Amino acid sequence: MNSNINKEVNHINLGHIDFKKAWDNQESIFKKIIELKIENRKKKENKATENYILVCSHPHVYTLGKSGNEKNLLINDENIKSQKLKYYKINRGGDITYHGPGQLVIYPIIDLENFFTDIHKYLRLLEEAVIMTLHEFGISSGRVKGLTGVWVNIDTNKPKKICAMGVKSSRWVTMHGLALNVSTDLNYFNNIIPCGINDKEVTSIENELNKKIKLEEVENKMLKNLEDVFKFKLKKDKV
User: Fold this and answer.
1) Are strands 103-109 and 52-57 parallel, antiparallel or unpaired?
2) Could you tell me the strand order of the sheet in which 96-99 lies?
3) Catalytic pick from 33, 105, 195, 215?
4) Is 163 labeled as catalytic in the residue annotation?
């Protein structure tokens, strides 16, 4: 592990941004961190790597993970075009999901060698930050055995997913992340089999509380909880 660790994280708010633009932004940062790690190894240097959290929301888009089944997209190209949607096959894990207005999307681009080298722990801590955030809104949530993400109604036979997760990692550097439904129009999930799971529903914070919630309020709580569970310090809005 790199002894010159960096537990500060640069927070960049991308706002409401086209998915491809945000993806390109992620790829650029991800590549820069990887290149520094390779250079460190070749030159036997120990330069500290940077960590980032990108926060945003997206216009209506469906994304399919590299291990996903395209049959889980239930509409064709013509439907996608007529409904002014976008669709991308991307390089994260997981199956198909939807992103759209009213959804809080967080992309941590973190060198886990600054923290711990355990992808399972990383995913569980992301989930824990979401669970803590939902608790602050009076929503009880948790995990469903064998499934990634955060769910409500977990003590019933009809759990509902409220937060989807899908990540990529290379040389212990992460990208992609999580999507928490705040005021999301859940009808868009009818066009897919979310995460390839055909017997589970999706929900949102507003749907559970039956009242309006500001995306910024959820974002602020979520970032604080990420700081707490990962024990890092955010450096706000570095651009």
Assistant:
1) antiparallel
2) 86-89, 61-64, 96-99
3) 195
4) no
Q: Whose CA is closest to 7, among 239, 237, 225, 228? A: 228
Decide if 83 contacts 157 (C-beta within 8 A).
no
Q: Is the pTM of this model over 0.90?
A: yes
Written as six digits, the tokens of 46 are: 């120990």
> Could you give the CA distance from residue 12 to residue 15 in angstroms, rounded to a whole number?
9
User: Is position 120 within any domain?
Assistant: yes
With respect to residue 1, please indicate whether it lies within any of the assigned structural domains. no
In the prediction, which pLDDT does 237 show? 63
Segments in the chain below pLDDT 50:
1-2, 238-239
The reported pLDDT for the residue numbered 4 is: 58
SS3 letters across 136-174:
HCCCCEEEECCEEEEEECCCCCCCEEEEEEEEEEECCEE
Total domain count, the chain: 1
